[in-house]
Structures are given as C-alpha cells and as structure tokens.
Write a structure and sequence with these properties.
The protein has about 425 residues and is α+β, with helices and mostly antiparallel strands. The protein has 13 helices and 23 strands. Strands 3-9-10-16-13-12-11 form a seven-stranded mixed beta sheet, sandwiched between helices. The protein has a five-stranded mixed beta sheet with strand order 20-19-21-22-23, sandwiched between helices. It starts with a helix and ends with a helix.
Amino acid sequence: MVDMDTLTSLCKRRGFVFQSSEIYGGINGFWDFGPVGVELKRRVKDSWWKRIVQWREDVVGLDTSIIAHPQTWVASGHVSHFSDPMIDCKKCKRRFRADEINPSTSSGHGEKKCPECGGELTEARQFNLMFQTYVGANQDAASLAYLRPETCQSIFTEFKNVQSVARLKIPFGIAQIGKAFRNEITPRNFIFRSREFEQMELEFFCHPKESQKWYEYWVQERFDWFLSIGVKKENLRLRPHAKDELAHYAKGCTDIEFQMPFGWSELEGIADRSDYDLSQHIKTSGKDLDYFDEETKAKFVPAVVETSVGVDRTCLSLLIDAYREEEVKGEKRIVLGFHPTIAPFQIAVFPLSGKLREPAIKLEKDLRKYFAADYDEAGSIGKRYRRHDEVGTPFCITYDFQSDQDHAVTVRNRDTMQQDRIAIDQLVRYLNDKFSS
C-alpha cells in the first residue's frame, strides 16, 4: 500500500491536491483541489447523485446555505455538545486532542507528557468544533452565527417545505452535497481530516416502525456503491457500533471503513437516528413538522435513516486503492488504476508531431462530446504516456502521420499497455465497449 508522503507528493505533482495558500506557508487543515483533482471530485459526486437521486423515484435533492439560523444548532445540540477534549503543552505550545495522548508518554508519577517535547500538559478542557462568524455590521451576541458543521440539519428544517412542494409520501429521502466546516484541534492525514470538507448526505424519512428495515437496506446499498466506483472489497468493511458507542438518540449505526495506510478509518456512517432531529426542531421552533398519512389518517413524527459520506475521504480512498508501481523495461512506472467512470480523464489525445496538431485537436474536440478528454502535446510520446498513467487515464489515443491515409489512430490501454489500431469512425463504439466491459 502506498504511504501518505508518496501519495501527497503525487497529488501535488499531477494537480490533484495542493496545500491551500502555499505561497504564504499554507494553512493547516485546508486544501485546494487542482485541475485533475477537481475532475475526480466531480466524478465521485456525479456517481453518488445519480445513484441516490437521479435513478430513484423516492429521493429529491436540496442545496441549502452554509450559514443557518443559530437556533438550528441549539436544537441539534451542537452548541452545547459538539466538542472535543483539548490539551495544550505548556512548553512548546502544541495542541492535542486528549484522546491522542498515548499513556506510554506518561511520567513516572502517572502524569502525561507532551509527545513532542516531553513538556507538562494542561488539564483537558472542552473545545467546541464549530467555526463562529457574525452576520451583519455589528459583532455582538445578537449577530453571532456558525458555519455549518454538517449539511443535514438544514434538510430537517426544510423537511416540510420539500415534502409539500415535491408531493412526496413516506418513505422518501432528501439528499444534499455541500461544504461543511469543523475547527478540528489537530487536522491530519492529508485530506482525511481537515477543517473544510465536502459531504454527501441523505436523510431518509420513514415510519418509526419501518426504520430498522430501511437502516439495513441503506447499509447494504451504500456498501455496494463503493464497489461500483472501483474500491476494492478487501479494503472495505462494515463496523456496527456497539451500544456504548451510540448517540443517545440513535437506534443503530454502522460505519463503512477503508484500510488506509494509517489504519481502518471511517468513510461513511449510516445511522438510524429515530425521530430525534425533527422532534428537536419541533420543540425549539414551535413549528409543526409532523407528517400526516392520508391513507391511515394518522399523524406522526417520521424517523430518519441517515447516510453521510465525505467526498474528500472517498477521493483519498480511491487514490490509495488505485496507486501501483510497476517495472517496465528497467524503469519504474506509476499508475493510478481508476475505474473508467471515476477517472479524471477517460481518454487523452496526442499528436505524434506538432505538424499534426490541427487534426489531433479536432479529434479530441469530437471525442469530448462522449468522454472526459484531455489533449496533450508536451514532450515525447513516452513521457505523455507516463504522465497520463499517473493521473489514471484509461486510454491514450495517438494521431500519427499514417492517420491521414488510413483514417485510423493508435489506442493504448493504460493497464495492459497494449496498442490497437482503430478506425476513427469506430472509436466511440470501441471505447464504449471497453468502458462497459
């Protein structure tokens, strides 16, 4: 398995991920996705949206604001409970989460010492993870607001509006993709744990008596999605939470975990949240968020099964899973073996010579109508192959001097390095067959 330093270096070199504000020394916990990385993110989000919303009749989408009314976070419990225990080193001033301090660093008297410098640590104190901001001209308590720490709460506050205008009947879901912000004490492991990240969340509303059935359904459905985008099954596992791990309102929770270089880590959580969220917002807002069943004439507060997955974490798992090194004719070849539906570029078009630029560009523009394409004429053909191996492009197409005569091009397979001569008017069919096989 690739180590994190090697992967981080590749991501910068090939335009997947850059350190935010790097020219000023960077800012911890914030990352910028480059020209190739943003394409990978888009493929992940498009795949999720198609499977969760587009291909289903019982789920609709939503896009809510990053800043919500502060009472939203009072009702949800984030203002009072969304915190981690924090410890500071009195000597080197480093800050740690209390659960990161290894007991083995304790002094002979049982006092925990700083793992960096051995200095004395402060007592643990609670640190709220929400970013504060102010709305309006004045910075006072009345204008205090928060950047959302998760995207789901606005789904709950918009439940009634969405249900009404979309004319949905229980069971149904509301899905959202969006940015969230958590003021992590110690961001770490590249883009796995950062302070700004993107979530893909589904809140599936159902009758409380059917929540267990839907919980089990969504656990399997979400696991299957990871397999569909090319994550290796042997690197995935389901980890049901023990009773003492569950939030007080949850009836069940299962994490989908991935074998990262730093250990098994959560990619997605699926939880039966009971009717807690809507009930809390009913209680705090005083508004009616009940559901009325026309068939049974019964009124009830729906239960919610939530699926919540990180876009950035999913991209990281795909990068790790796809990475491999091979030796070809005595030289190292680095390949990202992405599934074709996830690859940032599905094809790349090369002219063999600068003299063939015009017809090669025309071919690439024609193929863009069908595939995610890139045009590349920099360096030798061998260097272009290696460059696109490292960004995971499944097929590279070379327009050469013979192409003007036989109206064909050479198609090179990323994984086998086999080269086929294909008629230009058969290219789309040939590639579609490859991508569907």
